[in-house]
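step: validate -> pass
step: tokenize input -> pass
step: predict -> running
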Amino acid sequence: MKKIPVSELLAPEAASLKLKLIYGRKLLDKKFINNHRIQKPGLGLAGYTEHIHEGRVQILGNTEISYLKTLPFTEKYKSITKLCQKNISCFVVTKNLHIPKIVIQACKENYVPIFRTELVSSAAISEISSYLEEKLAPMTNLHGVLVDVHGVGVLIMGRSGIGKSECALELVKRGHRLVADDVVIVKRKQGYLVGNSDDILRNHIEVRGLGILNIKEMYGIGSIRLRKKVEMVVKLLDWDKEDNYDRTGLNKNTVDILGVELPLLNIPVSPGRNIAIIIEAAARNHLLKLMGFDAAHEFSERLNRIIKRNEEKVIKNVMFKKGIE
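step: predict -> pass
step: emit ->
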């Protein structure tokens, strides 16, 4: 399971969380968060800690702090101590609420960092969860090109030098948008994949013979995207006349990336084939399938109906001839 140190909550990109460390600076790189889901202790403060999960951020909002204030001094200490012993990552107190000293003391004794934020509980949960989801998402780097074609995120893959970047350049020229070239960073989020470029290569594309091109400067801001959901994979292959390529579209090939199955199209490359137009058509066809229309399936059914009618005619003719005899 992927995990990140609690110190990531104070990273520059986490400024929107508006967190202020109250205690635990030396613990920030020793305590870890392993889930983007946030918990509010609720019954945990009353002693029922069975469903308090380790490695999660615990939110103490107005309800929790108000409840703690009603407890006697010793009960308040026991309540927080029992939570800390569930190996939680940290506490976050919302709305800049005053934190009882005994709560801070219990955190010190059990080595649990505690933060405070001016955000209300609902906003804090939303912001922290979103930030952690991005940080904890399973990730991989793929060699290829990611292009937004008619709103479909198409990941173009294939051996080095087969023409992936040239194809992407033609697609950009035709009005589509480049997301990443050469190295595509892919993350899994809630059952789907999102791809983007790294900071160094962003907006750039390499074309053999020309070198590095800045797509944003050449074709304008509308020619690039920072990130895009990956919805299909096109693999460019060297043409092999001995190979039997799919000519009907009935074969449903898929590829597994980070546990997500994506449609896979194997496109042979040969002189004279306009791969950009083929990918553009593939993206349109993918959209039609999402709307419930499968051209290959519809054609196959129509062909089967014709064959069935012809077979019925042949049978009737045979029976008719036998009747005459």
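step: describe -> The chain has a mean pLDDT of 91.
step: cleanup -> pass
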